[in-house]
Amino acid sequence: MLIFLTGATGFIGSAIVPELLSAGHRVLGMTRSEAGARALAEAGVEPFLGNLEDVDSLRRGATMADGVIHTAFDHDFSDFVANCEKDRRAIAALGSALKGSDRPLLITSGVGLGSPAPGQAAREDVFNAEYPNPRVASELAGAKLLDEGVNVSVMRLPQVHDTVKQGLVTYLVDLARAKGVSAYVGDGANRWAAGPVLDVARLYRLAVEKPEAGARYHAVAEEGVSARDIAEVVGRGLKAPVSAISSEEMAGHFGWLGLFAGHDMSASSVWTQDRLGWRPTGPGLLADLERMDYSRASS
């Protein structure tokens, strides 16, 4: 298949590229820069200049392809609500180009939206529209397209990691470096699901190869790693003290990360693994954090 991949030069997209190519697919990779286009061409990808704000470019790319994987997202969390709305518009544009066909559209969301109740692991069969994460807009956009006959499915992400980046944990590391303390909220028992980036890339491939309209997949290798364990590994890496922060202090200490820091974001992938035969084999989140070079600030 020719796959239109948004976010092709991003952390996850750049791992999906070789996964697709090695399986015999061709990739039309979206990038917003000439430098990104050159890098994609060198990797054997057909570059496509476009961006999330230019919805016409999204429609053009989707029209050219046999299927679409949408991973691009503006990760400026200081304007998170607006960026989730931007993603909603992008998903609508991609889907509009696929109406009337069976070509798959695989969009991206977060595992928290599958949380049935506070403290319970998220599941693929749950969509919690009341979950306190503005990214609910992405899944609502996908649900609308599904009602309109588009072959759309959802990849829900946990903290996707290697030894350089670890999702929201990357920002926790930066905050701990800046404040001189690695913190967690309360007793730190809340857990975050995690998945190694190469395993996650393989799951995207499997999901677009065997599209199932309306399916929700969880790219989860570890159901949950406690916030305290994460803080302790980061503290050792930075040679910084580890400290508990009360819920009243959370917003002042964590800033926008307070939206997530005290929440349980554990998730199951039992259904996903059974459905697609996916078996993650990569290292755990704490293992990657142990091996990270803490002398270098995050990019």
Characterise the protein shown here.
With 299 residues, this protein is of the alpha/beta class. It contains 12 helices and 12 strands. The chain has helices at residues 13-22, 34-42, 55-64, 80-96, 136-147, 168-179, 197-209, 227-238, 250-254, 258-261, 270-276, 285-291; strands at residues 2-6, 26-31, 46-49, 67-70, 104-110, 151-157, 159-161, 182-185, 191-196, 216-218, 222-226, 242-245. The strands form 3 sheets. Strands 3-2-1-4-5-6-10 form a 7-stranded parallel β-sheet, sandwiched between helices. A 3-stranded mixed β-sheet has the order 7-9-11. The two termini are 33 Å apart. The model has no long low-confidence stretch (mean pLDDT 96).
Shape: globular
Count of strand segments: 12
SSE series: EHEHEHEHEHEEHEEHEEHEHHHH
Q: Largest sheet at a glance?
A: 7 strands, parallel
**How large is the share of residues in beta strands?**
15-25%
Q: Compute the number of helices.
A: 12
Alpha-carbon distance between the termini?
33 Å
> Mean pLDDT across all residues, rounded?
96
Structural class: alpha/beta
Low-confidence stretches: none
Q: Considering DSSP H and I runs of 4 or more, what fraction of the residues is helical?
A: 25-40%
Radius of gyration, in Å, reads 19 Å
The neighbouring-strand order within the major sheet is: 3-2-1-4-5-6-10
Give the gist of this structure.
Helices cover 39% and strands 19% of the residues. The chain has 299 residues and is an alpha/beta fold. Strand 1, helix 1 (13-22) and strand 2 form a beta-alpha-beta unit.
Provide the fold topology:
Layout: E1 2-6, H1 13-22, E2 26-31, H2 34-42, E3 46-49, H3 55-64, E4 67-70, H4 80-96, E5 104-110, H5 136-147, E6 151-157, E7 159-161, H6 168-179, E8 182-185, E9 191-196, H7 197-209, E10 216-218, E11 222-226, H8 227-238, E12 242-245, H9 250-254, H10 258-261, H11 270-276, H12 285-291
Parallel strand pairs: 1-2, 1-4, 2-3, 4-5, 5-6, 6-10, 7-9, 8-12
Antiparallel strand pairs: 9-11
Helix pairs in contact: 1-7, 3-4, 4-5, 6-8, 8-12
